[in-house]
Amino acid sequence: MSRIIFTGDIHGSLETKRLSFKNFPEGRNLTKNDYVIICGDFGCVWDGSNCDKYWLNWLEDRPFTTLFVDGNHENFNLLTNWEYPVKEWNGGLIHPIRPSVLHLMRGQIFTINNMTFFTMGGATSTDKYHRKENISWWSQEIPSYEEMGQGVDNLEKYNYTVDYIITHCLPNSILDRVDKWCPQHDSLTNYLEKMIVQNVNFKKWFCGHYHIDRTIDDKYYICYKDFLELLPNGEIKVINNG
Q1: What is the distance between the alpha carbons of residues 240 and 226, in angstroms, rounded to a whole number?
Q2: Rg, Å, the chain Cα set
Q3: Max CA-CA distance within the chain?
Q4: Long-range contacts at 90-99 (CB < 8 A, ≥ 24 apart)
Q5: pLDDT at 182 over 90
Q6: Number of CB atoms found within 10 A of residue 133's CB
């Protein structure tokens, strides 16, 4: 049975080294049949530079398989271009960045260990007004209505029941409890609230984006630097960092 471990934003060259054996010694005990899932802001497909290639090859050399949903800090023009053709994997659509570095596309449902995972990347960049469009910020950071609609269509096929949800940001009701002074409601957080929280049966929800490690109601797990292993019985184990 595959091991499944979640963590948060690695932002390309800034924090990918968190997955090194020094910082993540448990990585030595994993195989390519085990999965480390980045909950958005992967950032290793950024400008097509040698730096990108270095870190992507470095991840490919890890003993485990890296999966990620996109965040807001991704180069969507590169992530969705011809170099990374869409393929099917475990029931959903992916972009294979490397043989064992896979982008889990939006609105998909994947089956791992006989468990189902719904994915919906994206979030609003609160600093986008200080960035340059198509250089350090991309409008595709928020899913399109087509992507959101595909998510609903796929959920309908599963009778609106999945085991786990993986996103980059939170639905409105949970976001307000995390950041009540400045909630960032947008079309995506509205969608997650009205179409997912209010309609879908699920066990746990994993996200990144907020650069904190926090658990809400033993159901919503905000990931950043911690490594959270999803155990076969559905419990969550925190893996100590190096």
Answers
A1: 8
A2: 17
A3: 45
A4: 92/119, 92/154, 97/44, 97/45, 97/56, 98/56, 98/57, 98/59, 98/60, 99/60
A5: no
A6: 9
Does pTM surpass 0.85?
yes
Domain count, the chain: 1
Residue range(s) defining the domain that contains residue 63: 4-239
Q: Which CATH number do you get for residue 99?
A: 3.60.21.10
In whole numbers, what is the pLDDT of the chain averaged over residues?
Answer: 95
Output the six-digit token pair for 129: 């007004």
DSSP 20-62: STTT-GGGGG--TTSEEEEES---SSSS--HHHHHHHHHHHTS
pLDDT at 154: 98
The CB density around residue 190, as the number of other CB atoms within 10 Å, is 13
Cα–Cα distance measured from residue 16 to residue 48, given in angstroms and rounded to the nearest whole number:
16
